[in-house]
Amino acid sequence: MTIQTPSQSSTLDDWLCYLESVHPANIAMGLARVREVAQNIDLLDTPSKIILIAGTNGKGTTARCLESLLLAQGYSVGTYASPHLSRYNERVRINGKELDDQVHVDAFHLLELGRKETPLTYFEYGTLGALAIFKRFAVDFVLLEVGLGGRHDATNIVTPYASVITTIDLDHKEYLGDTRELVGYDKAGIFRKDTPAIVGDLKIPHTVTDYGVEIDADLILSKRDFLFIPTPTGFRWIYNDFDYEFAKPSIPAQNVTTALTTLARLNLLPEEDVIRQCLIDLQVEGRFQQLSAQPRVFTDVAHNPESARYLAHKLNDFKARGFKIHALIAMLADKDKLSVINEVVDLVDTWSCASLQNPRAELATNLQTLIPNIASSQVFDSVQEALDCIVPILDEQTVLIIFGSFFTVADAIAYFE
Q1: Which domains does the chain have, with CATH numbers?
Q2: β-sheet bridge partners, residue 165
Q3: How far apart are alpha carbons 224 and 36 in whole angstroms?
Q4: What is the pTM of this model?
Q5: H or E segment at 259?
Q6: Which of 153, 218, 307, 321 has the most crowded CB, counting CB atoms within 10 A?
Q7: Using one digit for the tens of pLDDT, what is the confidence trace for 332-363?
């Protein structure tokens, strides 16, 4: 069935439905098609300084930290992130704010005129749409989150002012490979010659540094050039002449140090008191986000082993204070579900498994088979059904954590809203 092309007066929902139909695949690696369309409508000639941000985890929190620190100094900032939790508009921000539907519609209309017969995936449309919006608003800085990997991701058509890799772990193995060396090499594809390349991972694969040296990138490496040192109440960051100690932020401190190092290398770091205030105010949706104070309910997008390890660290704080943990998990079928569960299993007292209303979702009954003590777990057809059952019986000494996917977090947020 042929879907009619929307117009500039169509709704954003009409456009999003159309974008899903233009390319037969959800993911299509390669830059040629995206670059051709970008050149057709002159998107690559931009006055904005672009910071490319890749990583298995931590892209969103690092971008939000950079955004906050740049805005605090009076710069205008465009930020592109994916996926969204509740609304497509979350993917593109100008100065920390979402945009009206019509701004996105205008960008997609421009792309449709410029792409001619070139097929684009949903993500490629979104990436080019974001670049069109940032050029329209002529922002000082663009923070561009890489979607998948780096080397062949649609975001990599730009010329970055700096490139950042947050963390490197196994995810999307069918596209990026099944070792950290292969994943790291793919992510290092966002590096450019003589351009700052900041890597925050604490165990950097040699393929990342080898490629950086090969192309003469300006490598700034964790543990070699800058240090992240956890402390009992927060963390310490050391880079060149900077030696600061901060209280524990609401996001992973390792990502904060990556952001600080990036701005320091670019001579864009604000004063220490400004940094402290930004970290106090910093909140990122879906990253150990509190949904209810009583009963205690949190949600987290943890969907791969590394992000589950960070979640375990947060849950351990509650266990140390005598709380019990009830985990509600819902995941996509193509994720490493067993490894995610194994990262937190020793901390969880009670399990519930739910199915997501998504064609890629894993069935709750299949998730349940991965729980060590199956007899003590429950299964539900949806996150909402699970919460209807769990929330009324939570006591004051139990913390409920809802995790496993961006879709899981979106369902949890919608329930409590």
Answers
A1: 12-281 (3.40.1190.10), 289-416 (3.90.190.20)
A2: 54, 199
A3: 39
A4: 0.87
A5: helix 253-265
A6: 153
A7: 998 999 999 999 999 999 999 999 988 889 99
